[in-house]
Amino acid sequence: MNRLLTLTAVSLYAFLHLPLLVLCAFSLNRSRFTVWEGFSLDWYRAALGDGQLMEAALNSVVVAVGATLISTAIGTLCAYGLWKRESRAFTLPLSLTLATPEIVTGVSLLAFFQWAFRYLHMQLGMHTVVLAHVSFSIAFVVMVVLARLRTFDRSLEEAALDLGATEWQAFGRVTLPNLMPGVIAAALLAFTISFDDYVITSMVAGVDSETLPMALYAMARRGANPAVNAVSTVMVVGLGALILVSERLRKR
Amino acid sequence: MRGLRELCLAPAAAVLAALFAAPMGILAAYSLMTRGAYGGVATPFTLEGWRRMADALYVAVLIKSFVVAGISTALCVLLGFPLALFIARAGARKNLYLALVMLPFWTSFLIRTYAWMFLLRDTGLVNTVLLGLGLIHEPLPLLYNWGAVILGLVYGYLPFVVLPLYASLERQDPALEETAADLGARPVETLFRVTIPLCAPGLRAGAMLVFIPCLGAYLTPDLLGGGKTILMGTLIQNQFSSARDWPFGSALSLGLMALVTALLWMQARRKGETLP
Amino acid sequence: MTRRRILFLMGVAGPAGCSRRNRLRLNVLNWPTYIDGGALARFEAETGIGVRQATYESNEEMLARVMTGNSGWDVVFPSNYFIPPMREMGLLARLDRSRLRNLSYLDERFQAPGWDGGLEWCAPFVWGGAGILFDGRVRPAPTGWRDLWDGRYRGRMTMLDDSGEVLGAALKILGHSLNSTSESELRGAYELALRQKPLLRAYLNAEVRDQVVAGDVLAAQSWATTAQQAMDAAPHLGFAYPREGFSLYADCAAVLRESRRGELAHRFIDYILRPEIAAGLVEKARTATANAGARALLGAKAAGLPALYPDAETLERGEWFAPMPAGAQRLRDRLWTELKSA
Predict the structure, then answer these.
(1) Is residue A126 included in any domain, yes or no?
(2) What is the mean pLDDT of residues C237-262?
(3) Which CATH architecture has domain C128-247+314-341?
(4) Could you report the predicted ipTM of this complex, rounded to two decimals?
């Protein structure tokens, strides 16, 4: 049984990482096309030397980290509140944010921002992108954390209360630590969808907030450009290394 | 108990009111207006956008979208469950394995889709390998069909089912399964009688996180399906781009959302519990 | 570079963009690949004006982003058939021709174009058309849209994923204008397109390029610029402007009325109209310049590419896209949805 499980998991990892290997390989291809011509690092040079691209990458990280922190905090609290007592006033709109096609979220948020900013004398920018990302990732966070909470034994928290803990203490010392794996999973999901979003971001981005998916989209759509593969590879290797290091540090 | 719960819900309420309810209000207003000639909306108010939805052409598109989303969701759950179980049982390495699931998604989705196009096309990797091994003599038509669309959706949404499943499986005490085994249950029995029922909340959340966004998915089906078919997401996208019919696009998306609401409500009624 | 980074980080930490306020800045919303970073850097070095450029995928997307008039963008590049509607919507600022001396370098055809006879609202920048990109090893080579209805490319042929172009090609076969608004003509075009669908591998835009180069696809309806990029890589490919007629478009620089940096915008447009700059830009983007001065500077080889610069006789068969009235647009979209669903 266990061996079968491992085998399945390994093949699923292969499935997930196959396209990654392909784009990695083509980032090292001399040709501009998806036909192998020989090894070259030119695309990395082109990508790293492109100031605007690097700025877009930085923007993306800033937006994704900001949106992840905000939506994970708000979403976790919301899930906890809902776990205490369900409320359709929350679960329904949350599910509906999932059911909204991206373009519709984009257009309606753009209309809302443009309307509100006319009175506030503000313009679209990083803040609108972060807000938009919070709005669509919060439902993911709530669902993942709630899935975790529903397997959590209520009596643990009640025991803490019986032993004289305040509500806050019970939440902070008993429930939250137990929730952590769910919170981490939710944060990972929020970060990923924020980091990868193109359709909504391109609608609500202002003049100073081009993100990496927007830059890559522009480069790729009108003529595949292996520099795009190079950037993606650097991003994946960089973030992968970051996770490895943080895992190591955590274990110490 | 009341104070803490309300306090916990307040920020989410603020976000939902400002960034969901208000934009949706604007959208509802759009759906009742007349199309501007080049996008945007104009007066007078009309119900035409809603009326046009009943057209058999658009109903067929909707049904097709439900079927595709349903198949993709089923496959995602089928594949996601063993992966989540594996990660949940990985002990100290579980966060690392979890991150490995997400890693491919930190590249741009367009680039991933292009990579799949390269893998699946006639002169692509899969066909080249199969031809080289002598297993086939003609390249298989792997790209630009329903299979490719569903493959793309399953690939793109697999993490969405793995994460909530992991979150609920990770809690499970392995001792429960050991007990079941000690009591003479076969592994399969343990799986269906113990493991799966205990992670039902995660299973349900995961299925929803896949099914609902799949209904409105747009670029993946378009690129991997070769634009030869049309699903809800593309239909709505078209209204806001080339067709320049924002009222109809707004009505279509609100209609889709109403349908999802009805489904969720029915499911909740049947199960005798609230959402999600 | 490091200083820019630090400034940028401060810009992120503080209210967005504060640290840049005192520098001259221009915000340009453009199609991808038209203007590369090198040309922008040179402009900044010459004038001290920094340019922030972002890109859009379709005219409709650009319009949605600037429609309310408080978007923050200064210069946009609408296609010719979007100039009249944007002007009517009051989104464009009138150009000051005295500040655009390089307008005189424009090709004669673009000095008084149909969509803006006096060049009061826009400066044509690049142009192109749609035709057939084909694998020359399959004989006979196609010469008209009709050939894409022929069984010889069955399953190895694509059309553009664009209702205007697909219906346009069918309308041309039937001898109508590609801007037709007549219901019966459009229905006829739809019937024709429906008959072609089983022969097609897919409806693809720029993505088709790699597959034509690799040999998966043998014939494709394609824009000239995509075709030229493919032909650069694979000499066995050819490009034909169909005998029945074909579509033409021109992307033009225009200043938004909301812009408070009109003067900088004019300096920027005059800069990209300068022959040596315009020549450098189209050489990289593999597209056709509307600038006769620039074309003269391109080498004989680049200026004589038949896909980018068809001869006068071929051009006669081309037809410019025109603004589409709402009713006809709705019918076209319905037919397109029907075609895709079939």
Answers:
(1) yes
(2) 96
(3) 3-Layer(aba) Sandwich (3.40)
(4) 0.86
Which residues does chain A have with pLDDT short of 50? none
Q: Measuring CA to CA, how many Å separate B61 from each of C128, C203, C337?
A: 34, 18, 9
The CATH code of the domain that includes A192 is 1.10.3720.10
Specify the pTM: 0.88
Residue of B nearest to A195 (CA): B106
Find the radius of gyration of the CA atoms of chain C: 21
Answer yes or no: is A234 within a domain.
no
Bond into B276 cis (ω within 30): yes
Superfamily for the C2-127+248-309 domain: Periplasmic binding protein-like II (3.40.190.10)
**Run of H or E including A94:** helix A88-99
Tally B–C CB contacts below 8 A.
96
CATH of segment(s) B70-232: 1.10.3720.10
Q: How far is A171 from chain C (nearest CA, A)?
A: 32
Helix (H) or strand (E) holding C277: helix C275-285
CB contact under 8 A, B79 and A12: yes
Alpha carbon of residue B184 to chain centroid: 39
Write out pLDDT tens, residues C300-332: 888 889 999 999 999 999 999 999 998 899 999
pLDDT at residue B37 tops 80: no
Element (H, E) at C223: strand C219-223
Backbone conformation region of residue C155, classed left if phi is above 0, alpha if psi is from -120 to 50, else beta: left
Mean pLDDT, chain B, rounded, equals 87
pLDDT value of residue C110? 96
Distance from C-alpha of B126 to C-alpha of A18, rounded to nearest angstrom: 11
The pLDDT tens digits for C261-282 are 999 999 999 999 999 999 999 9
Task: Please judge whether A101 and B232 are an interchain contact, meaning their C-beta atoms are less than 8 angstroms apart.
Answer: yes
Chain B residues whose beta carbon lies within 8 Å of the beta carbon of residue C86: 38
Whether residue B83 and residue A12 make contact (CB cut-off 8 A), yes or no, is yes
B226 closest CB neighbour out of C163, C201, C334: C201
Question: pLDDT, tens digit, for every residue of B224-233?
Answer: 999 998 999 9
Average pLDDT over residues C248-271: 96
**The pLDDT of residue A15:** 95
Please tell me which residue of chain B has the smallest CA distance to C197. B228
Q: Which residues of C217-233 are buried (b: 16+ CB within 10 A; e: fewer)?
A: bbbbbbbbbbbbbbbeb
